[in-house]
Amino acid sequence: MIDPCNLNEEQRIALEKAEKKKSQERARSKKYYHSNPRRVLDRQKKSREVKKKEMDQIQTQMRNCAITEPEPEPEPDFTPDYIEAENVVVELPNKNSNYTQEDIINLLKNDANIKSDNTRRTYIVDIKRLFKMTGCVDMKKCLNSYKKMLNSIEKSEYSINSIKQTLQSLLFVSDKYNILHNLFSKKKADDLKKFFKSAFEKFKDKSINELEQKQSTIAYPSFNEYLNKVKNKYGEESKEYLISYLYSQFSVRDDFKNLKIIDDIRGANENDNYLLINKNKMIFIINKFKTKNKFKKLQYTVTGKLKTQLNKWIQNKKLKIGGLLFGKSSLSPFVSKINKSLGYDNHGAINMYRHMRVSDLYKGDKQKLTFEDREKLSNEMGHSLLVQKQYERNLEISDVKDA
Q1: What percent of the chain has pLDDT over 90?
Q2: Angle between the 239-249 and 350-362 helix axes, to the nearest 10 degrees?
Q3: Terminal Cα-to-Cα distance of the chain (whole angstroms)
Q4: I want to staple 400 with a disulfide (CB 3.0 to 4.6 A). Which of 106, 224, 298, 301 is the partner?
Q5: Which residues, listed in sequence order, are joined to residue 277 by a DSSP beta bridge?
Q6: Is 358 helix (H, G, I), strand (E, B) or coil?
Q7: Which string of DSSP letters, residue by residue, matches 213-272?
Q8: What φ, ψ does residue 185 adopt, rounded to 5°?
Q9: Alpha helix (H) ranges present in 65-159?
Q10: What phi and psi values does residue 283 have, to the nearest 5 degrees?
């Protein structure tokens, strides 16, 4: 056996050649996959089927011989291991395909027009949920009994919002990959689209009504009350207080992960988020967020108390230019832990901050609010005025002195 810690010249050369050969083989495999994605996926599917058949035969023999062995572990569920979308052309299943779950997931995996991995992952989760709800083998069989299919969806154990999202994704993949028109006549395809569009609108309406009912039953504190509770429990120099106060001033979504500290905007990536710090200003620049297609970029100039707190944080953590302000992880679990520690068990995580911010704006005499006031906050938070109105909550107390 070669000792990797003590290689002679001949062994080192042999090892380098082997590594080079492996690298070339990987490159050839990747190139072949990009040129023939459907063929590769079909080959992998056949290989899995052969292995499954062999395993079934072995298990049958073991049972016949009265040998008791543990059940084999199930194959791991699909995890999005996305290839580089820009180099992939989506190849539709052959014309005889009935669109199984695997067919549709492969279409989503290899769709170059879906730029966001989170969006891709959401569609894949929704399609898996659809097949689980309905027990479908493939789309053709299910859609031939479309009323029974919808009945299974409506009577499933999932929430109204999950059902709405599932129907929305069904409509998306049907349009995107022309599934209905590939399976049925134009008239039947149009009728099916209309049928499921109506079902989606019904659950969308139910979702809005559910939200309104929730708004009327759950009381939220004002942001000042909330900040006082955080300060009393964790202290004003804590990360908990800093995050809470930051969101009271700049109420974006969970957009502060992987946020890089820079001192020059030149050369910044349009798809990354930054805290720009120079001699005169401190500015949050949010390029990557949920509603980017509408708002393009969110920007907030930091002043006063928040600027002082952020400077202390950066100094105490010894963060440098190019470092990450709050690390790589999402802040949602951290915020959820804060909320639960304060007794807000059913109020969510970062969305609670956004609700409080809007509710603070809408409290009191709503007639005094100008359109400009509402529009300014909606642009800052990166959502529409309609969503902002839906964020309004019942405040459980009146004004508290500034925290």
Answers
A1: 42
A2: 50
A3: 68
A4: 224
A5: 282
A6: helix
A7: HHHHH-EE--HHHHHHHHHHHH-TTSHHHHHHHHHHHS--SS--TTPEEES--TT--TTS
A8: -65, 165
A9: 101-109, 117-134, 139-144, 146-154
A10: -135, 130
Residue partners of 3: CB distance under 8 A and separation at least 6: none
Q: Give the number of C-alpha atoms closer than 13 A to the C-alpha of residue 275, restricted to the C-beta side.
A: 26
Give per-residue pLDDT as tens, 178-197: 999 999 999 999 999 999 99
Within 10 angstroms of residue 125's Cβ, the number of other Cβ atoms is 16
Residues paired with 262 in a beta bridge: 276
pLDDT digits (tens, 9 = 90+) for 291-308: 766 666 788 899 999 999
Return the SS3 of 324: strand
pLDDT, one tens digit per residue, over 128-183 is 999 999 998 999 999 999 999 999 999 998 999 899 999 999 999 999 999 999 99
The single residue listed with the structure tokens 């899995």 is 48
Taking a C-beta distance cutoff of 8 angstroms, is the pair 347, 336 a contact? no
Kindly give the pairing relationship between strand 219-220 and strand 394-395. Answer: parallel
Per the prediction, the chain carries an average pLDDT of 78
Which pLDDT tens digit goes with each residue over 220-242?
888 899 999 999 999 999 999 99
17-52: b (≥16 Cβ within 10 Å) or e: eeeeeeeeeeeeeeeebeeebeeebeeeeeeeeeee
Per-residue DSSP letter, 301: E
Across the strands, what pairs with 394? 219
Cα(153)–Cα(157) distance, integer angstroms: 9
CA-based nearest residue to 382, from 255, 221, 207: 255
Interatomic CA distance for residues 176 and 114, integer angstroms: 11
Distance, in Å, from the CA atom of 100 to the CA atom of 45, rounded to the nearest integer, reads 13
